[in-house]
Amino acid sequence: SAENDDEENEVVEKEEEVDYHEKSETDSSLENVIKQFHEDLGSRYGSSNLQWLDKAAEPFGSLEITAQRMVSKKAKGEPFVIAFAGYSVTVGRGNYFNQSFPFVLQDLLKPVFDKMGLEMIVRNAAIGGIPSFPYGFCLPHFLGMDADVISWDYGLNEGKAPHILESYIRLSQQNLPNRPMLIVLDNNAQRKKLLEEYAAPDDAKHQVLLDGLVLRRGTDILPKSLIEAEEAPPGFMKWDEFGAPNGCPGRSSWHPKQQEHSFLGHVLAKYFVKVVERASELMQETPLKEYVLPTLSHLPPPQSPLAENSLEVSQLLYGHENQEDSSSHWDLQELSCRTSFLPAQDHEKVLPSIVVKGYVEESKENIMKERPDSMYEQGWVLDVSKIERETKKKVERCGGLGYVDMKIALYGIPQSGTLSLWLPYEGKGTGPDDEEVLASDWIHNLILCEANEKRDDDACRLNRDLKLNVGGVDNPHVTMVNGAGVYLNRPTCLSVEVPPAAMLTPKPQDIITSSNSKMGLSVDIQAADSVTRAKGACCISHVVWEQQQPPTNIE
């Protein structure tokens, strides 16, 4: 797999870190700054080679919408937020974190945005070694509710079918309030066709994606004669050299080297500068206009052949079908997510915030310290996998390289006892007040996921080795989620039935949570007797639950 990044060479000392971006001098106008950007671009890649930067960026939807986003943010005095998601390619493995293409883009655009008088925030929220789900269930948590642009890279680990991207699109456009522009790092024809269909459907009212961009890697489009030439322009020189010192983790053949990250950053910057030019024209109007994005009232039917799943899982991924006259439309219900994976924008909705009892509180300290068996005998433990910790130690011996991602989860064995969770109702309205409430009237589906890590077959499996009680009912029906959340051919997410007899319970007094909900769903988890730490403890990395529309007979 392209994400098995943990077999690395001997580590050497970190070389002195150098800021390799050349900052353009502050000019007197936005026009001059943009002119300087294009001159620097020509010098770096050669004027005759700029065609390759254009070929690496395939826009879909409307550039005008992206420009309107910028104008609206300036009118409201809010920053324009570009939040990147993905796995090790976007993290920048093999290079320093600040050499990853999101931060190349940030450095290139900052003088342009400064002259426009618009604050820009770039986030690199990618996490090495993860697929787009369960991350996609938790987009507000990782990317922020204020994101104007988001991304994912699909080029290596998501297969060739478009159905996973389709779910990511639908969830992002309904769960993030700004209906963000989507950047997809990919070279797959089926997924590109899907993006075009979602951006320009036959029926305009079903347009889900307003604006976006397919970003293609340099290795996919650049001629070898250009990147292997002895006297190539500066932007193509040393194409096969990583930015981090020799011996540091992540120097795998599938990871972009420093110059390719720089290329991707310049490709994106060239496109966004074009957007800025249009935004500056719109800003000539006084007063500045706050553009209102079209409302996404419903979703169209899914366009891709879907993986075989239960109806509840398909509804979670793609929406609930509703018949209206002679046509049908789909709607996603509100999702709640708790995870301790890093980096995150929300530091309150983490796993310990839904734990009532059964977790070792001291385990949240010093996550890099190996946990003794005695700690696992006290309760479930916040921990990382052995491979994750060993890789992080290698990175630390290289000075850290600036990376901030970490796959922190709750781990347990039989001796850890029962992990008791309480999941607050966080749907529309205030939720139920009556203490005698059927859980299935308010919470539709529950997903438990394990951390994405290399695990042996005899390690704990969620569908085989967990004892569950949901809402007071033992042994609810469970199935593994197919198609989404698969890592190294191992499904990582478990769909758990909310049993018909399960009841909601009042908020426990001793739980520390930011939720104002009075009622929620209790979930008790135990590891089966056959589970051992040596073989692989049970692991809970994400807890996701889907709110049900309140019953019509309930005020």
What overall geometry do the principal axes of the alpha carbons give? globular
Give the number of DSSP strands: 24
Low-pLDDT residue intervals, each spanning 5 or more residues: 1-27
Mean pLDDT: 91
Instruction: Outline the biggest β-sheet.
Output: 6 strands, mixed
**Rg from alpha-carbon coordinates:** 24 Å
Beta-strand percentage range:
15-25%
Structural category: alpha+beta
Number of helices: 15
Strand order of the largest sheet: 1-6-5-4-2-3
Distance between the termini: 52 Å
Q: Classify the helix fraction into a percent range.
A: 25-40%
Describe this structure in words.
This protein has 555 residues and is α+β, with helices and mostly antiparallel strands. The protein contains 15 helices and 24 strands. The chain has a six-stranded mixed beta sheet, with helices on both faces. Strands 10, 13, 15, 16, 21 and 22 form a six-stranded antiparallel beta sheet that branches. A five-stranded antiparallel beta sheet has the order 9-24-14-20-17, with helices on one face. Mean pLDDT is 91; it is low at 1-27.
Give a summary of the structure in a few sentences.
The chain has 15 helices and 24 strands. Helix 1 packs antiparallel against helix 5, helix 3 packs across helix 11 and helix 5 packs parallel to helix 11.
